[in-house]
Fold this sequence. Notes:
One of its GO terms (molecular function) is nickel cation transmembrane transporter activity. Keywords: Cell membrane, Ion transport, Membrane, Nickel, Nickel transport, Transmembrane, Transmembrane helix, Transport. The protein is an all-alpha fold. The protein has helices spanning 2-29, 34-39, 45-55, 61-73, 87-122, 127-141, 144-158, 174-208, 211-218, 223-252, 255-260, 266-275, 279-307.
Amino acid sequence: MASYVVRRLLSLIPVLLVVSIVVFLLIHLIPGDPAAVMLGAQATPEQLAQLQEKMGLNEPLASQFYHWIVHVLQGDMGQSLVSDKDVNTLISERMPATIALTVYALVISLILAIPLGIISAVKQNTVWDYSSMVVALVGISVPNFWAALLLIIVFSLHLGWFPSTGYVALLDNIWLHLKHLTLPALSLGFIQAGVVTRMTRSSMLDVLRQDYIRTIRAKGGTSWHVIFRHGLKNAMIPIITIIGLNFGLLLGGTVVVETIFSIPGIGSLVVNSVFNRDYPVIQGVILYIALIYVLINLVVDLLYAYFDPKIDYSKG
C-alpha cells in the first residue's frame, strides 16, 4: 500500500506539468496584451514597453514558461499583475470558502442520494422507485443557477430562513457559516444528488441480484442485514468513483453559484483574473485545483481496498 501511494504521488509530477503547459499556452494564445489591459487605452508606447519588460512579456513563450515553472517548483506562484499580492496568499484567502461550499454540497448530495438510490433499488418498479427517479431526473436537468435563484426566492425572500448573499468563516461563527452556505450548497448538491442516486440504484440492483445475496436471504438474513451489510458495501465501488468525480466537478464548478450568493471563493477570483488577464493567478488556481483533484482520486483508489478486500495494491 505504501509503495502504491508513493507511486501515485510521483505520478502527480507529469500530470501537473502537462496541465501547467496546456494552461500556459492557452492563456498566452488569447488575443490581447495584459500590459495594455492594465494600463488602459491612454497608455503611451513607452509605458507599455516598460511594463512588458517588467512582466517579461517581451520574452519568447518558452523562456517565459521556463522562468515560471522554475519558480513554481520552488513554491513561488508569482505575484498578481493587478493587486501585486502573492498568488499563494490570494488562493489561501479564497480556497477555504470554496472547499467549505464543495464539502457541504457533497454531504447534502450524499444525504439525499444514497437513501433514494437504496429505496429505488429495493422497491424496484414501485411508486417509490418512480418517485426517486423523478427526483433524480429533476436534479440532473435543473441548472445550478436556476436552482440557486429559486432557493433564494423561496427560502430567503419569502420565508426568510436563510440569507441570500454573503459568507461567514467557519471559525468566526459555525451557525452563521452553515446558514450562509446552505442555499448555495443545496443548489450544487441537488444536481449531484441526481447522478449519485441513479448510480446507487443501478449498482444496488446488480448486487441484489447476485447468487450470494439469495444465499444469505435463504439462510434467514434480515432485510436490513442483507441491504446494508452485504448489498450496499459491495455496491460502493462505482458509487465512490462517482463521488470522487463529483467532488472535482463541484470544486471547479462553483463559479456561478459563488457569484450569485456573493461568496468570496476561488470562483470569483478566477472570474476577476480572467477579465483582468491576470495570468499568474489563473495558472496558480488551476494548478491548485488539479492537485486537489488528483489527490481526491488517490483517496478514492485507496477506499476501493476497504470496500473490496480482493484489491491488492502491493502487486500494482
